[in-house]
Amino acid sequence: MIEKSLRLAAACLTVSLAACAMIAGVVDMDGRVAAEGSANVPMILDGDQILFEFEAQKPNGSWRSGLALLNMGQSPPVLKQSLYDELAIGAGRPLRLRIGGRSMAMAAGWVRSEPERTSGERQFGSFFPSRRVDMVLQSGALAKGELIIDYPGHRLAFTEPGAASREGVAVPLRIDRRTGLAVVDATIDGASHAFVIDAGSPYS
User: Fold this and answer.
1) Residue 132 to residues 64, 96, 115, 135, 176: CA-CA distances in angstroms?
2) Cα separation of 136 and 197, whole Å?
3) Whole-number Cα distances in Å, 7 to 43, 91, 179
4) pTM score of the predicted model
5) Domain for residue 111, yes or no?
6) Would the CA dihedral through 56, 58, 62, 67 be positive or negative?
């Protein structure tokens, strides 16, 4: 379920991501992620892309900070090759993340890597943020909870299912099994149109 809360002075997008875990042609992350805790962290808008800070556990148990890009249009997390190697994911270590007070863990087999590219180039597929990004955190990795995207406040909140307060009007959505994306219907000038919900896409 995706809920959108509209206010006169501000708009916050509340997203329940459990239904968004299946992405055609990638993997189904349902049941693959362990997560607990809640977090409310700063959100960096880079153009129309959403960035935030995270920490990843290294093999020696210490934590390494990094910058992540939020993307609802894919499923598994994708790490820059250098971070993938530093965390020994290729050797079978699980990926353990902290985002504020929320922790997540998933087996190495569900984590992808991306070659290194020069800052400013398309660092992850179609994404080209202006600063170095270490990871794309995607919908499948967030399926164990809810996400609130507060654009006016530049905040991201990661919560347990049902923990977030609800405002606005809930609308039905469906999952397009050809793409794995969440789709809602909207009426414009009397005609019905299908819209994809994809916070993270570099275009509309």
Assistant:
1) 15, 21, 13, 9, 32
2) 17
3) 19, 48, 31
4) 0.74
5) yes
6) negative
Whichever domain contains 64, its CATH number is 2.40.70.10
**Spatial distance between the Cα atoms of 97 and 136, rounded to a whole number of angstroms:** 12
Digit-by-digit pLDDT tens for the chain (204 residues) are: 433 333 333 334 444 444 343 333 356 666 678 889 999 999 998 877 889 999 999 999 999 999 998 877 667 888 999 999 999 999 999 999 999 999 999 999 889 888 876 655 555 555 556 678 899 887 767 767 788 888 899 999 988 877 777 777 888 878 665 555 778 899 999 999 988 877 766 555
| Contact partners, residue 81, CB within 8 Å, separation at least 6 | 113, 114, 115, 116
Residue labelled with tokens 């362990």: 34
Residue 103 lies in a domain: yes
Q: How many residues does the chain have?
A: 204
Contact 76, 112 (CB under 8 A): yes
- Count of domains for the chain: 1
Domain that holds residue 186: 2-163+172-197
For residue 131, CA distances in Å to 36, 46, 51, 98 come to: 29, 8, 10, 21
Distance in angstroms (rounded) separating the CA atoms of residues 75 and 139:
5
DSSP 8-state code for residue 111: -
